[in-house]
Amino acid sequence: MGNRAVIQIQGQDTGIYLHWNGGYDTVKPLLDVAREYGVHGDDYGTARLAQIMGNYFGGVLNVGVAPIEKLDRDNRDNGVYVVDSQLNIVERLFMHYP
Length: 98
Fold this sequence. Notes:
The chain is an alpha+beta fold.
């Protein structure tokens, strides 16, 4: 049992998987922090965003990075947060419980 989510930057083939802490109340502030650090929505942005999340959560099992089609997007929790190049949430996919 988790609180799963996937974060996908528009136009990128790689996504970030969160097994825990995938709720809007956690994801949105982390995107805000990444923006404050100057992270942009590109290949490097995906890596930096994953780094920020991994540093924040600690441990070794919460954050994963993989090709978007290999991630558990329809995860029965928070689904997919689609973010634009400025790290704003622009769409939610597979969100079963709004």
